[in-house]
Each structure stands twice: as structure tokens, then as C-alpha cells.
């Protein structure tokens, strides 16, 4: 295999020194009193089963996790000291666990590297040179424009590595970099690391891995178990100490109190009953113009373990999904025990147990609840359910974990739970998509014990995909898939023989290499990666470069999601149009009816006064009080006039007859308006009959909106509502999305300051929101004809401040919440209520009671409403908007400051 | 039967998902308690304690008398300001109404010269400007009448008695509290149900659900049922505890019928939430789509401004796409007008029909959207 680099001679500080390190998650210790010195300038590895604290330890060394107890010094700097962390960040590179989890799926290869270059403050020319060099060296040069999300697993890992190497780190920390990657890509990955190290001899590399064969070629290893380091030294030393031939064996023996698992014996398959369990004929599946699976056929007899190998993205998962009925094939057909398989077929689903690649059980249910849910949904006999759940808990050693939440379990145990769920209903066929990816060797063996017993004892047919060659060797037959096609099918030994190879791995690789163009990385040039040399950008300038990097990336990501941009720009305009036409206080056509018991010309004259104005729409006269009650009860009648018998007679006598006006009070605003109209009618009536108002003329003048048009008042206020809600919901996603997808790791592991990160991400939303302001302004002027009397410059400037504040509000929520759902929910709930009710949309802030006013003024929208309404209708200029502008600026600062406080640079 | 059991089982699962999400639970509680109380109490369109300023350039006994006539409960105690102060204050939106009494007003009146009083109205405050001005005008007219004819009764030829059915004092809280409750139901149900769908896809659990022997309609119904149940319980408790006990709004007589309507409404809004979720791919898109929908449903429901004041075509359009106006009509009839089931069946059926249409579309798109 690859050459082993001896540690460079000469005195050098340790790559990392760790003393008394303990780390707890919710009271449970993940690391327990670690004492460790990682030697410098070599390949150092952390090995151990899942959940022993490897990732936590790496995170602490990289400074992305907050130190709780003990001391960690990385490259001689104390990681508890924020200043030291800032200083050391440019000398470290950290690649988190998970295939491509720190990549941005919509960014192209070159854009990704450009982004990372900027994060380290590199200038354009410097960056371009380094990127070319890295792409050349890793063989990614032919695909600079391919989005990261569309790369195969191996290429994603190479790209992640490039982004880690762009700034010539002194310490490279890799957390399970090859998990879930096929053997060929894995080999290429390690060759690349070797070449990098040849070019940068001083660089230390610290790797966590579950692959013992990889660990075997490291210079130094630390074996971990249950939060402690149980042994450290070179692989040879460890093997010698345990007296074992292989590292895997040595590791198992070094475990203190774990009984050695019985060796895995591959029992031969029972005599086949000759039935065909799964038959695939010419299966093809296309997504758009991409063919994921291309004319695949195979037959699997009952009780067989059929292995499925292939590089990432070759169509394995798609084939498996077609066999479970999750996807319908574009062409061809699949049969299960002779029955055609269709997506809607409930019968066949009872016969299949499926385990998807990622964890797909409910994270909000406990282990037992997940099992119970499946027992119910598969309708096991009612009296058997409880017993079956207990049985499975025992069988898969999950009983002690029954009340834990799935995400609190290490990956290996989670996968066991998924398998337990898949077999709960005793299916005849199991379809398992990379069930052991990321699972440590001990747990993997346990897993295969279960599979073998299912196959050999219960006759279950198992269709399993894997990247582990030793697992593939345990299958009865395997098939090799590449680029949607099946290249090979047969027993493992047959395939090795057919290729004249010495192992299945080399057979697999030679088979793939025949298909692939040769790896473009020139293996002949060992020192392909010369050190690019330090780049000297002034610190302040570097800060601006980093801020700009965040802004540029957020903009790219936004433009790659055109639906979001469309909603962000069209949503406000549509809202304004709807609201401008829809919300109106011009109460018109109130249904009106008369109950005239007098029927004289005098009573008719009074009734005519009411029906003469357009605000009252006459409906058929009332027949009595019962009729009035019924019609008003149905909501058909808003106002009724009741004229008693003898009205005309009393009026003529000057006896002031009494009439009643009935108003439907169910909606108070409408009732008050109806009352004021009725008062107006009665005044006119009084004036007409000669009773004056003592000779005074009371004149009412409507200021700012002479025509008293609702649209004129509503449009400026609606701008306030829209520019609050849409921009804040847009930016509310920004930070929390990174937390969910894992790209937040780049923020934690690089020298980006919190303010740079937040402001950079806010700028694109700010720009969209400001464009949106201009669009709303144009609609208000053009469509609704709202007059504009004030200073446009002042409005535009204050609007900028306002959308700065509202996008800042979204980011504030985003930095505090953990999930996108919670962020959207919290933003909507917290913003809608004060904006709609307490900011002057319906009611002027001045007529709110003190509490409502306080709520309104505690939010930017109430201040902005004064400015929109003032500049549109009241002729406000710079001087009048200045106080509001100052308050809004304070909101901007406060939101940004709080968001910075809420965003942690380190994980717990 | 089997289908029913599956739906119930999945509903229980959804309920435990909601229970585990602490942010959601806190927000739901906040919205149905503090927020409901705050909005009902603090924001009302009724004319009460309206801010009024008086520019008294006459400073005569009559002008003082007029100023004194402006009193609570309709108006706040008026501030006497100089013309310049009043103009600035009204610019700043501090007073909706300013009464201007010209110099020599009383003298001119006594001289029979018909002087003019001026009421300046800030017409940007639409909800209160019109009615407030009308009431102030009426008040001034009455006061002047008493001044002109101290011993005599009112001069109006007829004596008009106003009777407000269903809400005798036109207490706005009666109305705004219930409308606020409806707004909360709308906001929460839309987001909760839509998020339940999107989360299933983003967390990958939908892959598992689709290989289980459950049918899409069971999954969809379980989400609606779970969301509807939570929201319904929260809103009924809020109606009783916050609105009835806390704010003293008489609503309990028809609680049963109201609960039925609220259930139908929650289901129809939940269906619309799911429908929106099928048109978006991630939470970012969903958030941007759901906000305008919420705002339209809130503001064009008849709960904020009267339905009558919308253009006729828009009343029809909103009535077709949004269940909110139907629920507002239903709630007003049931809670205030004591209408029985027979009177509101039409509104219930309309809401149910909307739920049906939305669910049909969701089911038609289900597999394509979630698995694709």
C-alpha cells in the first residue's frame, strides 16, 4: 500500500496535548478524564466503536466544541482562550463527520473552494492559483462547474479535503472521512493525503476512522472506549501489546470488559426451496434526463443473501427503492414471489422489511415507541404485539435502551434499531440499504450475526448493499453496479477468480477501473502539492473579505433556489394588491329595513331619508319584531328602523314621537359606523324639518387624505406589514438551515467572526427586501394612485433601515432556534401579532391603550408606519422622519447585537 | 376499520411529535393566552378614549363649555394646544381629532353671525376618523343646542333610541377577542400542519412511512387530526379561560356548537396548510408562501374590517378560496346571535367542502411530491 511517513526528526511541539479532559452531554459523560499527547508531523488516528467520544474529542481539539472540564492545547495554544482560538484558526483545518456535510449542495466545485479561500482572507489571484493547484492534484479539474450536491461520494470527500487544504493548515483534523465511500474512492482519498503530506512535511493529520485496515497504515493510534483512551502507540506496538495479528483483533482484545464476540461463521445456505423471491426485469429509472438505473435485471432465490456493491450514486439506492415500491420504475418490472410489485400494493409491503440509507425512524419517539408504532401499523395480532416488541428488544440487545431517544444512541445502536424495526413483522424479504455504513467493526459483526440467522434459520431473503468488502464476502452472491448498470453478478469467489485478482477488493477496483477513465491525479508526481505560501492580507481587510464571502455565498445559494426568490419578490406585490383592494373602512351598502307601523306620509318621509344615502341598501320591509330578530340573527340585516303607530300624529302635534334604530352589534366597528350614518341622516332630517343647530356651522375637514379613501391610508400601512413579515421570514431560515444541514461547521472551524457571518448572510436579504420596497412603492403610486407628498429620499433611506431591522429580526430568531420549523413558527407568531394589531395598520398607535402602545413601540413596525404614512400623505421630509429613523437604527443595532450573542461560535 | 386504526395510530404519533417540540408548545401557549389577552384588550376599533386636542382661540365661556363637553368614555380629556402645536401633533399622529374654535366665536354667535367650528380629522386613521368625527360633531351640536336654549329639551322633532342587538354597549372586546382567537387558529394550524409534512420529508421519515402498509390518506388525515385536535383544545380552553373568565365576554351558552365549527375550521385550514406544503420543497419556501396566505386569511376574513366594504368580486373570490370569512360569519352567528345549527349549516358545509377539495389535491400530489 502507500508509503508510511516516519515522524520528521527534530524537536517540535505536540499537535495536541490533552489533560484531564471530561465532556458531558446532559449529564452523561462522553469523554471521561482523557490524558493524551498527539505527536506532531505524522498521521495520527483515533479508533474505537461508535459513541466512544472520538468525534467529541476531535471537536474539542479543533476548537469547535466548548471546553467543559480539563485542558486542551492545540499546536501549543490553550483552546479555552478565545483569543488563542482566533489566532490558531487559520492554522487548523477541520472536516466534520458525514459525507459532504460541510459542503453547500448548490455551489459548484470552484465556487466552493473560492468561498473557503475567501474565508481565510485570500486575495483573488492567490485563491485562483491555489484552487487550480488543488483541483489538478485531486483530479477534480475536469468538473469545476459541477454543483457539490451532484458529485459522487468520493468526489465530495475530495472536495471537502480541498476546502480544508486551501489555507495550508498545520494540523488537519478529519472525522471519519471515508465512511460511506466505496473502496476505489477510499484508496484514491488516502493516496491524495499521502501526496499532500509529501508536499507539506510539517503538517500533522489527525483522523478518526472505523476502518481498521486504514488505521493500520497510520503512524500513531489511540484506541478509545467509553470515553477513555485504552491504548496508544504505533499500530505495530498495539498489535504486539495485544498479541494479535491484525489491528481489528488487537482492538477487540484491548477492550477491557467486553466478552469477545463469537467468531462469525458463514454457514452454507440451506437447500433452496427453489422459489424466486425477487425478480427484476429490465428495470430502468430516469429522473429528468438523468438515467439513475439503466436496464437492470437479476433474480434472487428465497433465503439468499444478495449483496449489492458499487460506488456512491451508482443507482443502488434507486434500485432498492423500486423493489420496495417506493419508486415506480420508468421501464421494466419487478416481481416479489411471482407477484408484480406496485407502489400502491399494501399486500406486498407486509412481506418486505426495508432499511433506508439514512436514519428514517421517528426521532421524537423512544426506541420502544418506534417499535410499538410499527407493530400497530403492521397489524400484528393484538395479543402478540407487546410480546413481539419485547422479543425484538431482547434479540437486538435494545432492552436497556428501550426508553432512550434514537438520536441519543450511537450510530451502531441506531442501525440495530432500524433493523429491529425492519424485521418486527417477520417479513420474507429484507431490503437493507448500506445498513452498516459508519458502524464500528464489533457492532458490524453483531449485525451480521443477526442477518445470517435470519437467512439461514428463518429463510428470509436479504438484499443488502455495502461498501465493506469483508461484508460482501459473506454474501451468497453479489452484484457490482456502476453508473446505473450491473457489471458483474456471482458468488464472491467466482468474481475474484474471474478477474484473476487476489481479493474481492482488487477485483472490484479492477472492474471499476475498466469502466472509468484513469484517475486523472498524476500518481507519478509524488510531491504534487507544493506549499502555496502564506498570504498576507491586512486583518481588517481580511474581515471584510470574510464578510463578503458569506454574502457572496448566501447570494449564490439564494439565486439557485429561484422559487424562494420568486416568492420573496412576488409575494409582497400580490399581498399589497390583495390588501389594497380588500381592506377598506368605507362601509357601504349596509342592509337596511324598515318596520313602519304608522304608514303615514310622515313616517315614509323619515324612512326615505335613510334609504336615500348609498350607505344603506334597502331590503324588504319588516313584518314585525320577530322578523327583525330572525333576519338580524341570520346576519342578513345590519340596521333596522322601527317607527311606531301614531308617529305622524305625534309629530304633527310636536310631541316628539319615539323611533328606534336597531343595529346588529355583532361587529362593533360596523355597528358604530352604522350609528354614525344614522346620526347623520337624523341631523339632515332635523335640519329639513326646520330645527337648526343654533346657527353654528360645524365643518369637518379630513387632513392628509381629503377624499377619505381607504386605499390611500392602507397602502402605506400595508407596506409596513409586508416589509416586516416577508424579509424576516426570509432571513429566519438563513442561520438555522446551516445548523440543520451541518454547514455551520465551516463557521465554527474557520476564522469567521460572528458579526461577519451574520452580516454577510443578511446583506442579500436586505437587498431583496429593499428592491421589494421599490416595487411596493411603484404599485402604491401606479396602481392605487396614492399621492406622495413627502421626501422620496427620506422614505427610501428609512425603508432601508427598516428592512435592515426586519431582516435582522429574522436572523435573531434564526440564531436562537434549532430547527427551521421552529424558526418559521417563531418568526411568524412573534411578528404577526404586534405588526397587525399594534403598529397602526387598523388603529393609530395613539388610540391604543398604554400596554398596546408599549408593545407596538417595542417593535420596529410602529415607527416605520409613521414614516410611510407621513411621507405619503403628510408631506414629511428628512426632519420629520429623523426621530423614527434614529429609533429604527437602534433596532438594527440591537437585533444584530442580540443575534451575535445568540449565535455560539462553539458547540456544546 | 384497518384504515381507521392506522389513522388513529399515526395521529397519536403526530401528537407526541408536537408534545416533544418545546418551542412549538411554548409558542402555542403564548399565543392562546398572553397574545389573545393582549390583543383583545389593547386593540379595539371602538371609539373610546379617542385622543382629541382643542385649539381654543376664543377663550370664552362657551369655548370652555365646548371643551369640557368632550369627555370620556368616548373621548379622552382633551388637550388644549396652540395652532402650531396642534398641527405638529397631528402630523406626528398623536391626535386623531383636533377641534378648532376661532377667535370671537361666542361673540359672533351671539351676534347671530353663524360662526364656524372646525374639526380637523387625521384621515390616515381610517378606522376611527370617520366615526369619531361624526360623534364629535353630534356632541358639539347637542352642546350648542343646550347653550342656545338652556331650559328647553332637545330640538329634534323625533326622539331616537338606538338599540344594539347582541352587544348592547358595542363592547369591542366581545368581537376582537373571538376574532383574535380565530386568527391564532389560522396562523398556528397553517404552519403546524404544513411543517408536519415538510419535516417528514426533510428528516427522511417519509421513506419509511411509504414502505409501511399504510395509505397516503391515512398519513394525511392523521396530520390534520393531530394538528386540529391540539389547536381545537387550545382554542376552546382559551375561549373559556381567557375570553370568558379573563375578559368577561359572555360566550359559553353555545360552546358546543362553536366547538363543532372551530373543529371544521381547523380541519379546513389544516388541509390548506398541507396543500401549501405540497407546493414547496423546503421550509424556506414554505415560510415565504405561508406568510402571505396567513395575512390574506387574517385581514380579508371580515374579522378585521367588514366584509361589506370589500368590492363585490373580491367578497366572492375570498369566499371561494378562504374558509376564514365563513368561520367569522359562523362565529358571529353562534356566539353573539345565538343562532342554532340550522342557521349555520351552510357555513359549515362550505368550510368542509374547502377541506375536501384541498385534501383531494394533496392526495393526488402525495407520492409525486414526497417520494420524488
Automatic annotation (TrEMBL), chain A:
GO terms for molecular function: ABC-type transporter activity; ATP binding; ATP hydrolysis activity. It is a multi-pass membrane protein. InterPro entries: AAA+_ATPase, ABC2_perm_RbbA, ABC2_TM, ABC2_TM_bact-type, ABC_transporter-like_ATP-bd, ABC_transporter-like_CS, P-loop_NTPase. Pfam families: ABC2_membrane_3 (PF12698), ABC_tran (PF00005). CDD domains: ABC_DR_subfamily_A. The keyword Transmembrane helix applies. NCBIfam families: ABC2_perm_RbbA. This is Ribosome-dependent ATPase.
Automatic annotation (TrEMBL), chain B:
GO terms for molecular function: ABC-type transporter activity. The chain crosses the membrane at residues 21-40, 174-198, 219-245, 257-279, 286-306, 348-366. Keywords: Cell membrane, Membrane, Transmembrane, Transmembrane helix, Transport. Gene3D superfamilies: abc type-2 transporter like domain. It holds the Pfam family ABC2_membrane_3. The keyword Disulfide bond does not apply. It comes from the Bacteria. It is a multi-pass membrane protein. Residues 129-369 form the ABC transmembrane type-2 domain. GO terms for cellular component: plasma membrane. The keyword Cell membrane applies. Belongs to the ABC-2 integral membrane protein family. This is ABC-2 type transport system permease protein. It comes from Rhodovulum visakhapatnamense.
Amino acid at each position: 500500500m502507500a508509503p508510511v511517513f516516519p515522524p520528521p526528526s527534530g524537536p517540535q511541539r505536540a499537535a495536541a496535548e490533552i489533560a484531564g479532559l471530561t465532556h458531558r452531554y446532559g449529564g452523561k459523560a462522553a469523554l471521561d478524564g482523557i490524558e493524551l499527547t498527539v505527536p506532531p508531523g505524522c498521521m495520527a488516528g483515533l479508533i474505537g466503536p461508535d459513541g466512544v467520544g472520538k468525534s467529541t474529542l476531535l471537536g474539542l481539539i479543533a476548537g469547535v466544541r466548548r471546553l467543559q472540564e480539563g485542558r486542551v492545547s492545540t499546536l501549543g495554544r490553550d483552546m479555552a482562550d478565545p483569543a488563542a482560538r482566533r489566532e490558531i484558526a487559520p492554522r487548523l483545518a477541520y472536516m466534520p463527520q458525514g459525507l459532504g456535510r460541510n459542503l453547500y449542495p448548490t455551489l459548484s466545485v470552484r465556487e466552493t473552494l473560492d468561498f473557503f479561500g475567501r474565508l481565510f482572507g485570500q486575495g483573488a489571484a492567490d485563491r485562483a492559483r491555489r484552487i487550480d493547484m488543488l483541483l489538478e492534484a485531486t483530479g477534480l479539474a475536469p468538473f469545476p462547474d459541477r454543483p457539490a450536491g451532484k458529485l459522487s461520494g468520493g468526489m465530495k470527500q475530495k472536495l471537502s479535503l480541498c476546502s480544508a487544504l486551501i489555507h495550508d493548515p498545520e494540523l488537519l483534523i478529519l472525522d471519519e472521512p471515508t465512511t460511506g465511500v466505496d473502496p476505489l474512492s477510499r484508496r484514491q482519498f488516502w493516496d491524495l493525503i499521502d501526496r499532500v503530506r509529501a508536499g507539506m512535511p510539517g503538517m500533522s493529520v489527525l483522523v478518526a476512522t472505523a476502518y481498521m485496515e486504514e488505521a493500520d497504515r497510520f503512524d500513531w493510534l489511540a484506541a478509545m472506549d467509553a470515553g477513555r483512551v485504552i491504548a496508544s502507540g504505533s499500530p505495530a506496538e498495539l498489535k504486539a501489546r495485544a498479541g494479535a495479528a491484525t489491528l481489528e483483533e488487537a482492538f477487540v482484545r484491548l477492550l477491557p470488559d467486553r466478552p469477545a464476540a463469537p467468531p462469525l461463521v458463514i454457514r452454507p445456505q440451506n437447500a433452496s426451496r427453489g422459489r424466486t423471491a425477487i425478480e427484476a426485469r429490465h428495470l430502468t429509472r430516469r429522473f429528468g434526463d438523468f438515467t439513475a438505473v439503466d436496464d437492470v435485471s437479476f433474480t434472487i432465490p428465497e433465503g439468499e443473501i444478495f449483496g449489492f456493491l458499487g460506488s456512491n450514486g451508482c443507482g443502488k439506492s434507486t434500485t432498492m427503492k423500486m423493489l420496495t415500491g417506493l419508486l415506480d420504475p420508468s421501464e421494466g418490472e419487478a416481481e416479489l414471489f411471482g407477484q408484480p410489485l406496485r407502489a400502491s400494493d399494501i399486500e406486498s409491503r407486509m412481506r418486505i422489511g426495508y432499511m433506508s440509507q439514512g436514519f428514517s425512524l421517528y426521532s421524537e419517539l423512544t426506541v420502544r415507541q418506534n417499535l410499538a408504532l410499527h407493530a400497530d401499523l403492521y397489524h400484528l395480532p393484538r395479543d402478540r404485539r407487546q410480546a413481539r416488541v419485547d422479543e425484538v428488544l431482547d434479540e437486538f440487545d435494545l432492552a436497556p435502551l428501550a426508553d432512550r431517544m434514537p438520536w441519543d444512541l450511537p450510530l451502531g445502536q441506531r442501525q440495530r434499531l432500524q433493523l429491529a424495526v425492519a424485521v418486527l413483522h417477520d417479513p420474507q424479504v429484507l431490503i437493507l440499504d448500506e445498513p452498516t455504513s459508519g458502524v464500528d467493526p464489533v457492532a458490524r459483526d453483531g449485525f451480521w450475526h443477526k442477518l445470517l440467522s435470519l437467512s439461514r434459520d428463518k429463510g428470509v431473503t436479504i438484499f443488502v448493499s455495502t461498501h465493506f468488502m469483508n461484508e460482501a464476502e459473506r454474501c451468497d452472491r453479489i452484484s457490482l453496479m456502476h453508473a446505473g448498470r450491473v457489471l458483474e453478478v456471482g458468488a464472491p469467489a467466482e468474481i475474484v477468480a474471474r478477474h484473476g485478482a487476489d481479493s474481492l477488493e482488487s477485483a472490484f477496483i479492477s472492474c471499476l477501473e475498466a469502466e472509468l477513465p484513469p484517475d486523472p491525479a498524476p500518481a507519478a508526481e509524488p510531491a504534487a502539492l507544493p506549499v502555496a505560501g502564506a498570504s498576507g492580507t491586512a486583518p481588517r481587510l481580511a474581515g471584510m473579505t470574510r464578510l463578503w464571502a458569506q454574502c457572496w455565498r448566501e447570494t449564490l445559494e439564494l439565486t439557485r433556489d429561484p422559487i424562494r426568490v420568486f416568492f420573496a419578490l412576488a409575494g409582497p406585490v400580490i399581498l399589497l394588491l390583495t390588501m389594497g383592494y380588500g381592506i377598506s373602512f368605507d362601509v357601504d351598502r349596509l342592509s337596511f329595513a324598515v318596520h313602519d307601523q304608522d304608514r303615514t306620509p310622515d313616517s315614509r318621509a323619515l324612512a326615505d331619508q335613510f334609504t336615500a344615502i348609498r350607505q344603506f341598501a334597502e331590503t324588504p320591509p319588516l313584518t314585525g319584531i320577530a322578523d327583525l330578530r330572525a333576519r338580524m340573527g341570520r346576519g342578513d340585516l345590519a340596521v333596522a328602523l322601527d317607527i311606531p303607530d301614531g308617529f305622524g300624529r305625534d309629530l304633527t302635534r310636536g310631541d316628539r314621537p319615539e323611533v328606534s334604530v336597531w343595529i346588529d352589534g355583532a361587529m362593533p366597528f360596523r355597528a358604530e359606523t352604522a350609528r354614525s350614518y344614522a346620526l347623520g341622516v337624523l341631523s339632515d332630517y332635523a335640519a329639513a324639518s326646520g330645527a337648526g343647530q343654533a346657527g353654528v356651522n360645524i365643518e369637518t375637514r379630513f387632513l392628509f387624505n381629503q377624499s377619505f379613501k381607504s386605499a390611500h391610508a392602507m397602502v402605506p400601512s400595508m407596506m409596513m406589514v409586508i416589509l416586516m413579515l416577508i424579509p424576516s421570514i426570509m432571513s429566519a431560515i438563513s442561520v438555522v438551515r446551516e445548523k440543520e444541514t451541518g454547514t455551520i461547521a465551516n463557521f465554527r472551524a474557520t476564522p469567521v467572526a460572528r458579526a461577519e457571518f451574520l452580516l454577510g448572510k443578511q446583506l442579500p436579504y436586505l437587498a431583496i427586501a429593499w428592491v421589494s420596497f421599490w416595487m411596493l412603492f411603484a404599485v402604491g403610486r401606479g396602481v392605487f394612485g396614492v399621492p406622495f407628498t413627502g421626501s422620496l429620499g427620506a422614505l427610501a433611506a428609512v425603508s432601508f433601515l427598516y428592512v435592515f431591522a426586519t431582516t435582522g429580526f429574522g436572523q435573531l430568531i434564526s440564531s436562537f432556534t434549532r430547527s427551521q420549523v421552529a424558526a418559521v413558527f417563531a418568526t411568524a407568531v412573534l411578528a404577526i401579532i404586534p405588526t397587525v394589531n399594534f403598529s397602526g395598520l387598523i388603529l393609530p398607535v395613539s388610540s391604543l391603550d398604554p400596554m398596546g402602545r408599549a408593545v407596538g413601540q417595542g417593535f420596529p413596525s410602529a415607527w416605520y408606519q409613521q414614516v410611510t404614512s407621513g411621507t405619503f400623505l403628510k408631506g414629511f421630509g428628512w426632519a420629520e422622519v429623523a426621530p423614527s429613523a434614529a429609533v429604527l437604527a437602534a433596532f438594527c443595532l440591537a437585533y444584530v447585537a442580540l443575534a451575535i450573542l445568540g449565535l455560539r461560535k462553539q458547540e456544546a | 376499520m384497518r384504515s381507521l386504526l392506522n389513522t388513529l395510530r399515526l395521529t397519536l404519533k403526530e401528537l407526541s411529535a408536537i408534545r416533544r417540540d418545546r418551542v412549538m408548545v411554548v409558542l402555542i401557549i403564548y399565543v392562546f393566552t398572553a397574545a389573545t389577552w393582549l390583543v383583545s384588550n389593547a386593540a379595539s376599533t371602538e371609539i373610546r378614549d379617542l385622543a382629541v386636542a382643542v385649539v381654543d382661540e376664543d377663550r370664552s365661556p362657551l369655548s370652555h363649555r365646548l371643551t369640557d363637553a368632550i369627555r370620556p368614555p368616548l373621548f379622552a380629556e382633551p388637550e388644549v394646544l396652540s395652532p402650531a402645536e396642534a398641527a405638529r401633533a397631528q402630523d406626528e399622529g398623536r391626535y386623531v381629532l383636533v377641534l378648532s374654535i376661532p377667535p370671537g366665536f361666542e361673540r359672533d354667535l351671539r351676534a347671530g353671525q353663524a360662526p364656524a367650528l372646525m374639526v380637523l380629522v387625521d384621515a390616515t386613521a381610517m378606522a376611527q376618523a370617520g366615526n369619531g368625527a361624526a360623534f364629535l360633531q353630534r356632541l358639539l351640536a347637542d352642546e350648542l343646542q343646550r347653550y342656545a336654549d338652556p331650559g328647553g329639551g332637545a330640538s329634534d322633532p323625533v326622539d331616537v333610541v338606538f338599540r344594539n342587538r347582541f352587544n348592547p354597549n358595542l363592547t369591542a372586546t366581545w368581537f376582537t377577542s373571538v376574532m383574535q382567537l380565530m386568527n391564532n387558529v389560522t396562523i398556528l394550524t397553517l404552519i403546524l400542519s404544513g411543517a408536519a409534512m415538510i419535516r417528514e420529508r426533510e428528516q427522511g421519515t417519509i421513506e419509511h412511512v411509504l414502505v409501511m402498509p399504510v395509505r397516503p390518506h391515512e398519513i394525511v388525515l392523521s396530520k390534520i387530526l393531530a394538528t386540529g385536535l391540539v389547536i381545537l383544545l387550545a382554542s376552546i380552553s382559551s375561549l373559556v379561560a381567557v375570553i370568558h373568565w379573563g375578559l368577561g365576554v359572555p360566550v359559553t351558552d353555545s360552546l358546543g356548537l362553536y366547538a363543532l365549527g372551530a373543529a371544521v375550521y381547523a380541519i379546513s385550514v389544516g388541509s390548506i396548510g398541507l396543500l401549501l406544503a405540497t407546493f414547496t420543497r423546503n421550509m424556506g419556501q414554505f415560510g415565504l408562501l405561508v406568510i402571505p396566505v396567513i395575512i390574506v386569511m387574517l385581514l380579508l376574513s371580515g374579522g378585521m374590517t367588514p366584509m361589506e366594504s370589500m368590492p363585490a368580486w373580491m367578497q366572492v373570490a375570498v369566499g371561494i378560496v378562504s374558509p376564514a370569512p365563513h368561520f367569522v360569519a359562523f362565529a358571529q352567528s353562534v356566539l353573539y346571535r345565538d343562532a342554532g345549527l340550522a342557521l349555520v349549516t351552510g357555513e359549515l358545509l362550505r368550510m368542509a367542502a374547502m377541506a375536501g377539495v384541498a385534501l383531494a389535491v394533496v392526495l393526488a400530489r402525495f407520492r409525486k411530491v414526497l417520494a420524488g
